[in-house]
Amino acid sequence: MLAKVAHRHVVLTIPRLLRSLFRRRRELLTELGRAAAEAVSELVRRGLGDEARPGVVVSIATAGDLVQWHPHVHLLTTDGAKTANGSWQPLPEWNGTLLMSLFRECLLARLVDSHAISPELVAKLLAWKHPNRSLGRNFEAMDPLEWLARLSDHIPDPGQHRTLFYG
Fold first, then answer.
1. How confident is the model at residue 92, as a pLDDT?
2. How far apart, in Å, do the first and last CA atoms of the chain sit?
3. Looking at residue 131, what is its pLDDT?
4. Residue 135, pLDDT score
5. CB burial string 33-42: b at 16+ within 10 A, e below
6. Contacting residues for 70 by C-beta, under 8 A, at least 6 apart
7. C-alpha to C-alpha distance for 116 and 144, rounded to whole angstroms
8. Measured on CA atoms in the order 40, 45, 51, 54, is the torsion positive or negative?
9. What is the C-alpha separation between 73 and 70, in angstroms, rounded?
10. Rounded distance, CA 147 to CA 89, Å?
11. pLDDT digit string (tens) for 8-41?
């Protein structure tokens, strides 16, 4: 008999300033997914102990509402983890603010390690306050060739996986 496992769907985004970096260096999209999985694992370890292992599915997406380049990740993660003794433990508290902070730390460290950004840029990004602005519209009229160009931006490179499994 299988036990029912609770799960969560989480979306993690990156600052606009970094979007073009992921467009130019598409191999970094995998680092985006790894940083997200690492952040979830750390959140669960903090709640359940160092040996806890959650199940995580990361889906890397690149399209925003109007087919603009907007790399982000969707996570489907268990709401708990398998512990060192093999038992299943639910996470006592799901802290979305802490998860976003852990994701930011993991991602920026990976980008610095891969020489994609400088430590000075990291300091600027960490000091920046998010304005919560939106596009202010839910449609856009464009030339068909512009639409095809935008759409083709989201075709993955050969061999690049956009869904990653951890746990």
1. 87
2. 21
3. 59
4. 59
5. bbbbbbbbbb
6. 13, 19, 61, 62, 63, 64
7. 33
8. negative
9. 10
10. 47
11. 888 888 888 899 999 999 999 999 999 999 999 9
